[in-house]
Amino acid sequence: MTQSSELIWHNGEMIPYQQATTHVLSHALHYGSSVFEGVRAYDTPNGPAIFRLTDHLKRLYDSAKIYRMEIPFTLEQLTQACKDAIKQNGFSDAYLRPFAFLGHVGLGINPKSRVADVTVAAMQWGAYLGEDSLAQGVDVCISSWNRLAPNTMPTAAKAGGNYLSSQLISGEAKRNGYVEGIALDTNGLLSEGAGENLFVIKNGVLYTPPTTACILPGLTRDTIMTLAKERGFEVREEAIAREALYLADEFFMTGTAAEIVPVRSVDQIPVGQGARGPITEELQAAYFALVKGQSPDPRGWLEYVND
Ligand code: PMP
């Protein structure tokens, strides 16, 4: 569950949580015209550090570019806003939600102004798929909903409207007693979870769906591919059939909010031994050591709040 903050950065100012509101006729509320990021800051020996903040903010600008939305703040300004949202709320770790949306610009589908309102909220958010998920693994199902089709809604954009698809996928799964739903693309091949990318392990090789499988190219996915290769694992981005999940040795999901979550069953078929597997455990440990500043950070992925 999330626990909110006292202050929210809103169009250049830090304002009280209760005042961070918008008009009911905001364009984004009616048409999904928002772009956003989910970023985590972890408590490290050198104070709070935001993991891959610059990469997340670049993806925010990329998402806005696809929708021809103007973010009237620089990367430096939004970087500082993220750090301030953590510092001024007194958090040592946090989930950050940078968010840009078309606000009170009229109800025409294509308003003249493409200038976004921008907010950055910080909050405390524990393990997204439950406290036990990281060690015990979770039970998932294949969704009856496919992921977005190519050239309909661009999945490389982390846009508000795309999350109607995610709501259908995760809502259906939860109603049926699963922790998460896994979506196939419109070719029937593996795509992604409602809010997570996927890794299948077979005979020591890691497989993950390519960006052509209509996924959000996740930063956690990229981090895990990097950490796995560094440890000598082969990583292949290739099309994956549904049944590969049932026959996998290990299967895990990645996401900023979810982190690295082992999957212990798919459609009630146990994955491997039906528990977190050894490679998943090794990569999970490497990930948490990195984000918490307990291992070297040669790529400068930790961006310290107090710098
Ligand atoms: N796919 C979807 C649909 C998501 O919402 C997320 C979470 N942002 C991811 C994948 C994972 O992306 P990341 O690792 O950058 O958080």
UniProtKB/TrEMBL annotation:
It comes from the Bacteria. InterPro entries: Aminotrans_IV, Aminotrans_IV_CS, Aminotransferase-like, B_amino_transI, BCAT-like_C, BCAT-like_N, BCAT_family, Class-IV_PLP-Dep_Aminotrnsfr. The keyword Oxidoreductase applies. Keywords: Amino-acid biosynthesis, Aminotransferase, Branched-chain amino acid biosynthesis, Monooxygenase, Oxidoreductase, Pyridoxal phosphate, Transferase. Signal peptide: none annotated. PROSITE patterns: AA_TRANSFER_CLASS_4. It catalyses: L-leucine + 2-oxoglutarate = 4-methyl-2-oxopentanoate + L-glutamate; L-valine + 2-oxoglutarate = 3-methyl-2-oxobutanoate + L-glutamate; L-isoleucine + 2-oxoglutarate = (S)-3-methyl-2-oxopentanoate + L-glutamate. Its EC number is 2.6.1.42. It is an enzyme of class 2 (transferase). One of its GO terms (molecular function) is branched-chain-amino-acid transaminase activity. Coiled coil: none annotated. Pfam families: Aminotran_4 (PF01063). Pathway: Amino-acid biosynthesis; L-valine biosynthesis; L-valine from pyruvate: step 4/4; Amino-acid biosynthesis; L-leucine biosynthesis; L-leucine from 3-methyl-2-oxobutanoate: step 4/4; Amino-acid biosynthesis; L-isoleucine biosynthesis; L-isoleucine from 2-oxobutanoate: step 4/4. Its cofactor is pyridoxal 5'-phosphate. Acts on leucine, isoleucine and valine. Belongs to the class-IV pyridoxal-phosphate-dependent aminotransferase family. PANTHER family: AMINO-ACID AMINOTRANSFERASE (PTHR42743), AMINODEOXYCHORISMATE LYASE (PTHR42743:SF11). This is Branched-chain-amino-acid aminotransferase. It comes from Pseudoalteromonas qingdaonensis. The lineage of its organism: Bacteria, Pseudomonadati, Pseudomonadota, Gammaproteobacteria, Alteromonadales.
